[in-house]
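Regression test case RT-17, inverse folding.

Input:
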């Protein structure tokens, strides 16, 4: 017995998987003015360097503290202050490499366990912002510019609070911070990608 087109469509509609809508969405109207605390579990800096022209090396650092002060009506007044616990949150795929990175040759985490970024200005530019600030690594503070894009905002069903998230990209010169072996054994340029999540207090 042949099923009608309407009947077939009805069966397929029932059988089709339900696509759940994520709690967050790239809707700027969901962002409320105020101060947000950094979410350490979901904020990370991914870095990449060129190793001798043979391969690309990657690693991660996590945030340990920080805040975002934002008012959608006054985006240029946004303030960001984030501390990264380099000593405890460094993540690479080799134990030996991690030990080397923590040594005096690179981050010297026994003396300088954390790094910190503090914004100095924000320039809204259409679909993205330019975030300027000072980055401190190994007691060396240098200006850094990051391109920031809004990921989304909404109420987190786990903590029932408004969460906001951003992706920032940029680069630094590791020689400016006294990080590691001389150029060009490893590239001086370090590319950064930061996933930053914040929770409203």
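Golden output:
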């Amino acid at each position: 017995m042949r099923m009608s087109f309407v009947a077939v469509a009805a069966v397929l509609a029932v059988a089709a998987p339900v696509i759940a809508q994520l709690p967050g969405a790239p809707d700027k109207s969901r962002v409320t003015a105020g101060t947000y605390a950094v979410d350490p579990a979901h904020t990370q800096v991914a870095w990449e360097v060129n190793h001798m022209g043979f391969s690309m090396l990657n690693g991660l650092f996590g945030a340990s503290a920080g805040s975002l002060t934002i008012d959608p009506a006054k985006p240029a007044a946004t303030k960001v202050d984030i501390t990264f616990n380099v000593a405890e949150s460094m993540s690479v795929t080799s134990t030996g490499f991690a030990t080397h990175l923590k040594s005096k040759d690179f981050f010297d985490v026994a003396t300088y366990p954390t790094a910190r970024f503090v914004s100095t200005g924000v320039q809204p530019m259409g679909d993205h912002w330019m975030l300027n600030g000072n980055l401190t690594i190994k007691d060396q503070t240098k200006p850094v510019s990051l391109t920031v894009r809004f990921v989304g905002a909404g109420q987190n069903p786990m903590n029932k609070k408004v969460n906001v998230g951003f992706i920032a990209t940029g680069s630094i010169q590791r020689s400016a911070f006294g990080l590691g072996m001389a150029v060009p054994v490893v590239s001086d340029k370090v590319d950064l990608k930061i996933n930053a999540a914040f929770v409203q207090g």
